Amino acid sequence: MDKSNSGIANKLRELRISHGYTQNFIADNIDVKQPTYQLYEAGKRTPKAETIYKIANFYGLTTDELLKLCMPLDNEIYYDAPKATNRTVEEAELASFSSAERVSELKKNEVELLFYFSKLDDAAQKELIDFAKFKLSQQKQPWMK
């Protein structure tokens, strides 16, 4: 294990084990292949900045909290450990998605719709747009003539 990677490798392993996740589960949720994630935990590869952001978001942490390598995971003993979260990965992603500037003026339902819409493939997005147009035509709003 490379000494420069040992701290983050240990942190990733501790976080995964403390949450009861498999390497494959985390890899799927941060858009990397399982062997790549395994190399992160082994300290043989360093995650890119974008991947560090995704990992932090996955656990409901900031990148600062994730990279603070001396941070123990025991919330009752150490004052600087992050509070445990019961958020699902989907809820953590949604919270991150809704904090972006581009959606700051939108309502909660609009943000949620955009979040799920962004996860769909092109064909499914087209179907959803067609469905939204159909629903609007049923409402017969005064602005729709």
Provide a descriptive summary of the structure in words.
With 145 residues, the chain is mostly helical. It has 2 domains: 3-99, 434 Repressor (Amino-terminal Domain) (Orthogonal Bundle); 105-145. The chain contains 8 helices and no strands. The chain has helices at residues 3-19, 23-29, 34-42, 49-58, 63-67, 89-98, 108-119, 122-139. Helix 2 (23-29) packs across helix 3 (34-42). It is elongated. The N and C termini lie far apart (67 Å).
Mean pLDDT, as a whole number?
77
CATH topology of the largest domain: 434 Repressor (Amino-terminal Domain)
Helix percentage range: 55-70%
Given the helix and strand composition, which structural class is it?
A: mainly alpha
**Count of spatially separate domains:** 2
**CA distance, first residue to last residue:** 67 Å
